[in-house]
Every structure is written in C-alpha cells, then in structure tokens.
Amino acid sequence: MLGDYKITVLTDGTTPVPFGDLLHGAPRETLANAFREAGETLDRETSVNSFLIDTGERRILVEAGAGRLFGDCCGRLPATLMAAGYAPESVDAVLLTHVHGDHSGGLTVDGRRVFPNADIYLAKRELDYWVSDRARARAKPSHQKMFEEGRAALAPYRAAGRIRTFTAPFTLFPGIRAIAAPGHTPGHSFYEVESRGHRMQVVGDIIHAAEVQLPKPHVTIDYDADEALAAKTRAAALADLASTHELVAAPHISFPGLGHVVRSGAGYTWMAIPYSADVRQVGE
Ligand SMILES: [Zn+2]
Fold first, then answer.
1. pTM strictly above 0.85
2. In the chain, where are the structural domains located?
3. I need a labelling partner for 64 at 20 to 30 A (CA). Which of 11, 23, 190, 254 fits?
C-alpha cells in the first residue's frame, strides 16, 4: 500500500541484454568489472516490470510490457495481471513513460487492443516524435525498428480515439503527476504517485544497468535517443531521488524494481526495499 493506493508490480518477463555492446561512456573492462563486483556478467537478464495502481476508483497501469515483440521471454503481463486479480478489460488507464517496444508493445497483440477499456496517456512530445517521419529519418539506424513497433502498438488506440496526451508537469489523476524527463526519448516522462503523504516515482528508463549507471550516471545506453540529455536527466533525477528518499519504481531494475536511491561516494547506489509476503504500508 502507498497511502490509500494499492500498488502491484507485475512482471512481463526477463530478457538478456548485451550491455557490453550497448553501454557508452566507460571502457568495456570498467563495465565488466562493475558487473562482476555485483556477481553478474555483462549480458545478465533484465526485468521488464509494470506497475498497477489501484486507487479504489481507478485501475491505472504504468507500462504495458513487450507483448510479442521480444519473443517468448516476455509478454506475460496479461497473465500476471490476471494472477493478481485484475482482468485486462478492467484497466481504466495505461500510462507510458515512453513508446519503446518493451513499454508499449504489450498494448496491442495482432492489431487488437489488449486493454479495450483503457485510455493511453503519454506526453504530446512523445507521440509527436514517434509518428514523425522526419524524426525517424534523423534517428539512429539502430532505432528505425522502434518507430514501426511504436506506431503499431498505438494504432488501434489512435483509431478508437483512446490516446490522451499531456505536457508535463501535468496532474493526470488525483495524486498522479507526470514529470518531464527527456533524453532517453524526447517525451520520456516520470510518473509520481502520492497518497496520504507517501510518494513513489516511476522513473522509466533512466536506469538500465544499476551496476554502473548509479555510481557513474554519465554512462548511457544505445537505446537513448539523445545520450547527452539522457545523462543530464539521470544525474538530476538521481540527486533528487537521493535527497527526497522517496520510493523508486524502476521498469528495468530486477523484479520488483522497488527501492531507494542512496548517495555513495561520488555517485549513488540502489537499496531494494525488503520483501514482505503481506500487504503492508510502504515505509512502515
Ligand atoms: Zn526505453
């Protein structure tokens, strides 16, 4: 429980990521050492997490998983949602931090809406970017497929008039606010959830590899549309999260991806919150 809101973290699956090829800003040896110190290899599996916020009045899903885009590793969100007691039809809103395939792919399977009664919320800048042929022409070669995937994921919701855009900062629902966090994508957004003084921030894709990107926030990843801006946004966000010490919800930190960002030397480290088998109030 976060105040009056019940938060359920849902796994969409886990997938190996070739971090050695994708991370930029530190020598491969430095990266390998950082992962080794954490007991991991450079191609360790990465979680794909979604967050369901049940406000009592609404069921709001943040991130929709990969659907079929990544193969059998992922696309488990509808099943894990059902296991948590929520039918996909009962979801009222899906909030996207951004439109990459592992966040939006699960919206649509075979051209059909997986969440037929939900409005999809994303930043206007984000939608504008992914539907722009000019933006696509300027994007990295490695990002071209993302445009196809993103457009296909959003298409049936656009046709049904179910897309809602905002310009951050923007309050979407009572206690749920979008914050601009550009760089990873142009309209990349955080979602801050607050109830009865308890706060949680869903930070999207500012952290792919906590092993290196917390101690060295300047380390970027090829998935970033604007790597310099992504690094700047990460540095500012980590400083903010370490000072507020609020709960952080991270789509790609190992499931359930809930914890705190803590200062450590010149950088930061991740402290996962203790797991409890009972439904408990956060921080109590
Ligand atoms: Zn992403």
1. yes
2. 6-272
3. 23
100 C-alpha to ligand 1 centroid (Å): 5
* CA 123 to ligand 1 centroid distance, Å: 14
- Is the domain defined by 6-272 classed in CATH 3.60.15.10? yes
- Retrieve residue 131's tokens: 């539907």
CA of 257 to the centre of ligand 1 (A): 15
d(CA 241, CA 224): 21
120-154 pLDDT tens trace:
999 999 999 999 999 999 999 999 999 999 999 99
Is residue 39 helix, strand or coil? coil
> 46: alpha, beta or left, given left = phi > 0 and alpha = psi -120 to 50?
beta
Distances (CA, A) of 200 to 5, 44, 181: 11, 27, 16
Note the pLDDT tens digit of each residue in 158-200: 999 999 999 999 999 999 999 999 999 999 999 999 999 999 9
- In sequence order, the 6+-apart residues with CB closer than 8 A to the CB of 242 are 261, 262, 263, 268
Give residue 175 CA to ligand 1 midpoint distance, Å.
25
Q: Could you tell me the distance, in angstroms and rounded to a whole number, from the CA of residue 205 to the centre of ligand 1?
A: 5
For residues 282 and 65, give the distance between their C-alpha atoms in angstroms, rounded to a whole number: 25
Whole-number Å distance, alpha carbon 218 to ligand 1 midpoint, is: 17
Distance CA 36, CA 15 (A): 19
Amino acid identity of residue 146, one-letter, is M
Q: CB under 8 Å to 29, separation ≥6 — which residues?
A: none
Pairing status of strand 108-109 against strand 93-95:
unpaired
**Separation of CA 207 and ligand 1 centre (Å):** 10
Q: What is the dihedral of CA 229, 230, 232, 234, to 10 degrees?
A: 160
